[in-house]
Amino acid sequence: MSNTNTQIKLAARPTGMPGPECWKTEESQIPSPGEGEVLLQILQISLDPAMRGWMNEARSYVPPVRINQVMRALTLSRVMESNSPDLKPGDLVTGTQGVQQYAVAKPEDLTKVDATLADPSRFLSVLGMTGMTAYFGLFDVGQPKSDDIVVVSGAAGAVGQIVGQLAKIHGCKTIGIAGGEEKCKFLTDEIGYDHAIDYKSQNVAKEIKRHAKKGLDVYFDNVGGEILEAALFNLNRGARIVICGAISQYNTTDVQGPRNYLSLLVNRARMEGMVVFDYANRFGEAVPKMAGWLKEGKLKSKEDIVRGQVTDFSETFLKLFSGENQGKLILEIESV
Ligand SMILES: NC(=O)c1ccc[n+]([C@@H]2O[C@H](COP(=O)([O-])OP(=O)(O)OC[C@H]3O[C@@H](n4cnc5c(N)ncnc54)[C@H](OP(=O)(O)O)[C@@H]3O)[C@@H](O)[C@H]2O)c1
User: Fold this and answer.
1) Alpha-carbon dihedral angle through residues 21, 27, 32, 33, given to the nearest 10 degrees
2) Is residue 276 in contact with ligand 1, taking CB distance under 6 Å?
């Protein structure tokens, strides 16, 4: 182990797509844990579209990352040294340690990984924030009934692939929307969506109508923009729209609102935003269930693990916005 800690810090706030000018790499001394603290070696960094929002100077559900601050990111780490009775060297934990190689943390800010439940990387995907977003967004906000038609955008992505499978387990008919033939094939052939719509080559509104004649009952939105509008054109009476994210809008300065929002009135429908962190005290309800479904083979999770160094962060992060990622995007830090 070298004695330096490579860190990626926010250098400037982006306008549009975050380019290399937004980041700076710094080397510092590996920190020493104080009383009650642990030293962590970061093994995997979760790359999430939300990180784009955290770079903006705007009011949100968490404060913006400050200029010169280590970029915030969810992580999977190994305990290297411990001054706490709660964790011992070798334990695996998740937390928000950011884009760097090493960090000091307090056990109360970490979640210990139970490797008997699943492979550790699953705790950044299906058993972590991503899976919890799918679970609580679908069941608490979407409130599907069995036989409902559930439509999901960003369906081949980290959250979307889980939402479709949970809806299927619940007895719903599922329609996934994704970009390109390969991703659509993945939706129907590998993770069991009933139908897939390729938004890059098909008319989304017409395709939803074809598969949901009376309209959709739940729309789980990960992308916003024109795809949200296409869903609004196809609501069944009493439909629920879960606003989970709007990745099509994150890098634009000209945000599009839904033009046809009065469809909510006509169809007595509702549209509601959700933030996964609001459900933190209920994760314990969902994790054992999801782990059980994983073990039984009822639930699959595809992770896109890129192996490299923390300095590969900025380039790897952009895969989320070009659609190059296939499932949950994770940067795994190779030891040097
Ligand atoms: N509310 C919450 O608490 C919460 C928590 C976690 C995530 N989220 C949100 O959930 C959404 C999905 O996140 P994720 O982690 O699962 O990411 P992801 O879906 O694994 O990756 C992003 C995907 O978005 C699609 N995309 C990118 N640009 C697009 C565009 N202009 N139009 C349509 N699709 C586009 C791409 O798929 P295609 O190849 O199919 O285009 C890309 O692979 C994001 O909006 C994120 O912010 C919200």
Assistant:
1) 20
2) yes
Q: Which CA distances in Å does 189 have to 42, 146, 182, 192, 246?
A: 35, 22, 10, 6, 26
The proportion of the chain whose per-residue pLDDT surpasses 70, expressed as a percent, equals: 99
Q: Are residues 218 and 162 in the same domain?
A: yes
Chain segment 97-141, per-residue pLDDT in tens: 999 999 999 999 999 999 898 999 999 999 999 999 999 999 999
Shortest-distance atom of ligand 1 to CA 275: 3
Domain that holds residue 197: 129-277
Q: Do 115 and 143 share a domain, yes or no?
A: no
- The CATH number of the domain holding residue 154 is 3.40.50.720
Q: Is residue 291 part of a domain?
A: no
Nearest CA to ligand 1 atom 19: 157
pTM over 0.85: yes
Q: Which helix (H) or strand (E) holds 315?
A: helix 313-317
